[in-house]
């Protein structure tokens, strides 16, 4: 099948996440990068495009020009990937949606609720696809965990514990560290620092696996590094619809941790535990029985996990493949709405509603912490 045509906003020279998206997009042969507005600096935008083999005529110096020009081309892009800092998600997302082009966007949805609402309004009015790359939802064992919860293996969910802890911002970063610079600037990251950057990943993962809706939070947000203007450590208690309870810890000052995202879910019939740094192993303990060690693609693998497994068991899959699964599912969705092709069984890709839930989580947590941890609804 001929690859779909992808454009990219952001992700030029010196960027991290743009390269990840490009690898993921081409891993399964579903996308070809043909256009880009890769930097707000015109010279860097052109140089970045040349390095990536993008034709000069489709190397744009602004996303506005790119949206207008690509919409007018007979061979225009099928989707635009937005890989900019948070405060620059909304304007290009709205521009491409209103130009009739589908959007794939890095998380979180935006820097502010107002920006998020503008994206949602444009998506709903145009009917174009909006896909949010919460890449951890693409891991095979996370898909299996979700299926196990849905079919009742754990019984009724009672307790959820999720954490995402790092240590890379334990000290004030070097001024030349671009990744740290924008993530600790509330004008670009939004009012939430750690909670928006990795707290939303943890929140989304818990929601994705359990299917539970968070009703309210009680949060304690801190900025431990002197002078830091956004939070770098977050403790949140969660109340879910139906009575289940949860705990979420996110930190970027937890010395000794790199990308320690982990999830534990406990129900009336059993419990599961999974950790992102060893993503090909998950434990399942039925009540009153010995603990079972489940492996990606191994004995006990379910259809949901096997569908997004690329290599035999024992060959690790993880971060890049998780992103690639979302890009492949995005391609299936584009072809579904364009050509009427059937979606794969078990297809799931995060969208605008997941993004809005994440923004509500950020806002409620910030408000709760400001009110000394009072229980605050997600509205």
Account of the protein in words:
- The chain is of the alpha/beta class.
- The chain has 2 domains: 4-132, 3-Layer(aba) Sandwich (Rossmann fold), CATH 3.40.50; 144-310 and 355-370, Dihydrodipicolinate Reductase, domain 2, CATH 3.30.360.10.
- The chain has 12 helices and 14 strands.
- It has a 9-stranded mixed sheet with strand order 13-12-11-10-6-9-8-7-14. Strands 2-1-3-4-5 form a 5-stranded parallel sheet, sandwiched between helices.
- Helix 1 (17-27) crosses helix 11, helix 5 (113-126) runs antiparallel to helix 12 (352-370) and helix 6 (140-150) crosses helix 9 (194-210).
- The longest helix is centred in the last third of the chain and has 21 residues, at 319-339.
- It is globular, with a radius of gyration of 20 Å.
- The chain starts with a strand and ends with a strand.
- The mean pLDDT is 97.
List keywords for this structure.
379 residues; nine-stranded mixed sheet; 36% helix; 14 strands; alpha/beta
């Amino acid at each position: 099948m001929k690859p779909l045509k992808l454009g990219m906003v952001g992700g030029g020279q010196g960027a991290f996440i743009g390269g990840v998206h490009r690898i993921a997009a081409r891993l399964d042969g579903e996308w070809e990068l043909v256009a880009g507005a890769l930097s707000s600096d015109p010279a860097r935008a052109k140089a970045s495009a040349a390095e990536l083999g993008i034709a000069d005529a489709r190397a744009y110096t602004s996303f506005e020009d790119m949206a207008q020009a690509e919409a007018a081309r007979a061979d225009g892009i099928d989707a635009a990937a937005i890989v900019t800092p948070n405060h620059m998600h909304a304007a290009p997302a709205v521009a491409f949606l209103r130009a009739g082009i589908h959007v794939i966007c890095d998380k979180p949805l935006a820097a502010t609720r107002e920006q998020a609402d503008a994206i949602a309004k444009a998506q709903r009015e145009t009917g174009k696809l909006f896909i949010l790359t919460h890449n951890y939802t693409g891991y095979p064992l996370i898909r299996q965990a979700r299926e196990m919860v849905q079919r009742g293996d754990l019984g009724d969910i009672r307790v959820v514990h999720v954490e995402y802890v790092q240590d890379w911002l334990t000290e004030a970063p070097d001024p030349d560290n671009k990744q740290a610079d924008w993530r600790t600037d509330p004008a670009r990251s939004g009012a939430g620092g750690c909670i928006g950057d990795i707290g939303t990943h943890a929140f989304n993962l818990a929601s994705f696996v359990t299917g539970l809706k968070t009703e309210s939070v009680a949060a304690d947000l801190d900025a431990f590094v002197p002078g830091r203007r956004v939070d770098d450590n977050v403790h949140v208690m969660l109340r879910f619809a139906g009575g289940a309870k949860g705990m979420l810890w996110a930190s970027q000052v937890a010395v000794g941790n790199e990308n320690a995202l982990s999830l534990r879910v406990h129900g009336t019939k059993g419990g599961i535990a999974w950790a992102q740094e060893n993503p090909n192993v998950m434990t399942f303990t039925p009540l009153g029985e010995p603990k079972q060690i489940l492996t990606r693609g191994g004995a006990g693998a379910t259809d949901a996990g096997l569908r997004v497994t690329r290599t035999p068991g024992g060959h690790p899959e993880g971060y890049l493949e998780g992103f690639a699964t979302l890009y492949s599912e995005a391609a299936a969705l584009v072809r579904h709405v364009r050509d009427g092709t059937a979606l794969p069984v078990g297809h799931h890709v995060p969208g605008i509603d997941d993004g809005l839930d994440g923004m509500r989580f950020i806002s409620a947590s910030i408000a709760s912490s400001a009110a000394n941890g009072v229980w605050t609804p997600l509205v």
